[in-house]
From TrEMBL:
Gene3D superfamilies: 3.40.50.2300, lambda repressor-like DNA-binding domains. GO terms for molecular function: DNA binding. The keyword Cell membrane does not apply. CDD domains: HTH_LacI, PBP1_LacI_sugar_binding-like. Keywords: DNA-binding, Transcription, Transcription regulation. It comes from Streptomyces chiangmaiensis. This is LacI family DNA-binding transcriptional regulator. It comes from the Bacteria.
Length: 331
C-alpha cells in the first residue's frame, strides 16, 4: 500500500471510528475501549505500518510531554539529571514521563509504547537496544544522553577523557605505580570511556596498567564490596581510581573503618564531584562533570523547534584535586 494513503482520517474511516479516537490510540491514551483500540491497531498493522510510523502522520498532534528513559533512579547522579531535565521542561510547559528500566526484559517494548505519548525522548545510553533507538527516532525526536550520535539522533555527553588526566596526575605528580580501577566497563558507556582513558594514561607514561578492573556497580555499597576485594588481596595498590564518586566514598568509608589512612596507605579518587566529595575528610579528588547542564542541554535540543540536533555534543569536565589523592587541601 502506498504511504500516501495512510493518514489520520484514512485510518479512522477504515476502522469506523472518529479521527480523535485514532489520535488517542496513537498517544496510548487510556480513554479508549479495548475493542476500539484493537480495531484501530488492526488497521494500522494491516496497512503495513507500525504505530510509530503512524505517529509521523500525526505529527501535528502535540502531547505536551517529553520522555526520559533511565536505567534506574538510585543515587545523586540520576537525581541531578532528572531535576535538570524537569527544570528545562517546565520552561516550555512540558511534562516529563519517566521510564526507569532497571534492565527488565520488557524495556524495549515499554520504550516503544512511551514514544506514542511524547513529543521527544531522551534515552540514557545503555538502556535500550540500537534497533529500538532507530525505531523510536522515526516517530519522535530522540537525543541520547552519555552515548554517541548516529544517523538517527544526536547525543549529549560529558568528556570522560579527563579520567586520563587524573590517572596521569597520580602516576606523574605523586609517583604512584600500582593503580586499581573500580568500575564495570561493560555495564556503562561512561565507565567504558573512563577505563579506556585510564589505560591510555598508563601507556603514555610507560607504566603497566592492571590487567582487569575491579568489576562492581556504581552505588556506594559497591564501593564497599570493591574495598573488601582489594583488601583481601593482601598487597594494597598505591591508589584506586573509581568510576564515580559514590563507589569512591563507599570504598573510603570501608578502608577508613579498617584503620587504614587515606591517602597515606591508599589514595582514592572518584568522578562526578557530587556534594559529599568536598565534605568528607580528606576531601575526595575527583572529576567535576556538569550533570545538570547535561540534562538541560538534552531537554533543550528536544524542545527547540528551530534546532535539528546532529552529531555529538561533548560538555567539558574538570579535574578537582583534594586531599584523598595526596594533594594538600586547596592545592
Amino acid at each position: 500500500m502506498s504511504n500516501r494513503r495512510v493518514s489520520l482520517r484514512w485510518v479512522a474511516e477504515q476502522a469506523g471510528v472518529s479521527p480523535a479516537t485514532v489520535s488517542r490510540v496513537s498517544r496510548g491514551s487510556a480513554q479508549v475501549s479495548p475493542e476500539l483500540r484493537d480495531r484501530v491497531l488492526r488497521v494500522i498493522e494491516e496497512s503495513g505500518y507500525r504505530p510509530n510510523h503512524l505517529g509521523r502522520a500525526l505529527a501535528e498532534v502535540r502531547h505536551g510531554a517529553l520522555g526520559l528513559v533511565f536505567p534506574g533512579l538510585s543515587g545523586p547522579y540520576f537525581t541531578e539529571l532528572l531535576q535538570g531535565f524537569e527544570a528545562e521542561a517546565l520552561e516550555t510547559g512540558d511534562s516529563v514521563l519517566l521510564l526507569a528500566s532497571h534492565y527488565r526484559a520488557d524495556t524495549d517494548a515499554k520504550v516503544i509504547d512511551l514514544a506514542g505519548r511524547v513529543d521527544g525522548m531522551a534515552i540514557h545510553a545503555g538502556t535500550v537496544s540500537d534497533a529500538v533507538v532507530e525505531e523510536v527516532s522515526q516517530q519522535v525526536r530522540v537525543v541520547m544522553m552519555c552515548g554517541t550520535a548516529n544517523r538517527w539522533n544526536a547525543s549529549v555527553s560529558t568528556d570522560n577523557t579527563t579520567s586520563g588526566a587524573l590517572t596521569r596526575h597520580l602516576l606523574v605528580e605523586h609517583g604512584y605505580r600500582r593503580l586499581a580501577f573500580v568500575g564495570h566497563p561493560e555495564g556503562s558507556p561512561d565507565v567504558t570511556s573512563r577505563w579506556d582513558a585510564f589505560l591510555a594514561a598508563h601507556h603514555e607514561v610507560g607504566v603497566a596498567p592492571p590487567v582487569q578492573p575491579v568489576r562492581v556497580g556504581l552505588q556506594q555499597s559497591d564501593g564497599v564490596i570493591a574495598a573488601e576485594r582489594i583488601l583481601a588481596e593482601g598487597t594494597l595498590p598505591d591508589a584506586v581510581v573509581c568510576a564515580n564518586d559514590e563507589t569512591a566514598l563507599g570504598l573510603m568509608l570501608c578502608v577508613l573503618g579498617r584503620g587504614l589512612r587515606v591517602p597515606d596507605d591508599l589514595a582514592v579518587t572518584g568522578f562526578d564531584d557530587m556534594n559529599m566529595a568536598a565534605m568528607v575528610r580528606p576531601g575526595l579528588t575527583t572529576v567535576r562533570q556538569p550533570v545538570r547542564e547535561l540534562a538541560t542541554t538534552t531537554a533543550r535540543l528536544l524542545t527547540d523547534p528551530d534546532t535539528r540536533p546532529a552529531g555529538d555534543l561533548v560538555l567539558p569536565t574538570e579535574l578537582v584535586l583534594r586531599g584523598s589523592c595526596g594533594c594538600r587541601p586547596g592545592g
